[in-house]
Amino acid sequence: MAEYTLRPVGRVESALTDRAAAPRQPDEGAPDAWLVFDDRYAPALDGLVPGTDVLLFTWLDRADRETLAVRPRGDATRPVTGVFATRAPDRPNPIGLHTVHILAVAGARVHVRNLEALDGTPILDVKPILTPDR
Which of 3, 36, 58, 109 is the most buried (most CB within 10 A)? Predict the structure, then answer.
């Protein structure tokens, strides 16, 4: 198979630093965070406005890329399940997918609500969530 190179466009700035203590989902106590983009990508942020929801794609750089199966949510009572059927961060290509609400945009920084990504997590991309009026 072909290999592809991904280049981060920024990083997450968050109070979360310990993977074991981080919430697993945004509604489980994830704090607000800043998306800090490299200045050269600032023009790409044009059109992002407070009050909107976007999809944030991150590279879960502290993930174990050899993991193929897990017990969902680390629960020993649940059956072992392939990672492609879970939201587990450990997986062959640890791409994080987050729905975040934009609180503010300040230059090359975007303040978002309830992001469960760790401080320093590389940002790969941001995409709008399409609505019926697009």
Answer: 58
Q: Dihedral sign, CA of 58, 61, 64, 70?
A: negative
Residues 81-126 pLDDT 10s: 999 999 899 999 999 999 999 999 999 999 999 999 999 999 999 9
The amino acid present at 35, given as its one-letter code, is: L
The pair of three-digit structure tokens given for residue 70, joined into one six-digit string: 């897990």
| Cα 40 to Cα 53: distance, rounded to the nearest angstrom | 23
Distance CA 132, CA 118 (A): 32
Between CA 14 and CA 120 the distance in angstroms is: 8
Do residues 118 and 22 touch, judged by C-beta distance below 8 A? Answer: yes
What is the pLDDT confidence band of residue 52, given thresholds at 50, 70 and 90?
very high
Residues 70, 67, 120, 129: is their CA dihedral positive or negative?
A: negative
- The partner residues of 69 in beta bridges, in order of sequence, read 82
Compute the residue count for the chain: 134
Res. 24 pLDDT band, cuts 50 70 90: low
Task: State how far the Cα of 8 lies from the Cα of 58, in Å rounded to an integer.
Answer: 8
